[in-house]
Write the structure tokens for this entry.
Amino acid sequence: MSDIAQAAGVSRQTLYKEFGSRDEFAQALVIQEGERFLDAVDSAVREHLDDPRAAIDAALETFLRTAGEDPLVRILLSDDGTAGLLPFVTTQGMPVVQWATARLTATIEDGWPQAPPAKARLLAEALVRLAISHVTAPGESAEATAASTGELLGPFVDEALGRK
């Protein structure tokens, strides 16, 4: 917190007054960065509203590619436990999962209003959890991961959006 306060040109006391604790600051930082990623995801979905499966593929690929290229995400993922940031997207990640799920649910409901709210939320949460999992433990390329996830979730997407 001292380094952050110094870089921001404020006192540690000001940081603690604004954020409450180191954990609350870290969580706010993760959500702020997540906002940028979800703006890109939202755009990817909206470019494919006529094809929900393509929208899901594009959204996940965009998220994974953007996260893979982001310097802050690289720092977060290389955390050896001393920086204390990785838990905010893994073991202590529920606030981030809930926030991202709500944001993605809104995108799905806006893009496909015929989707039942419970199914839109289920799809959003599954995508958020899969995205976090693939970012924290990457396997294949962003494109291959998005394609395989789209193949897996495709039938549910078709059914949930009434596109059988």
About this structure: The chain has a mean pLDDT of 83. The chain has one domain: 28-160. The chain is about 75% helix and 0% strand.
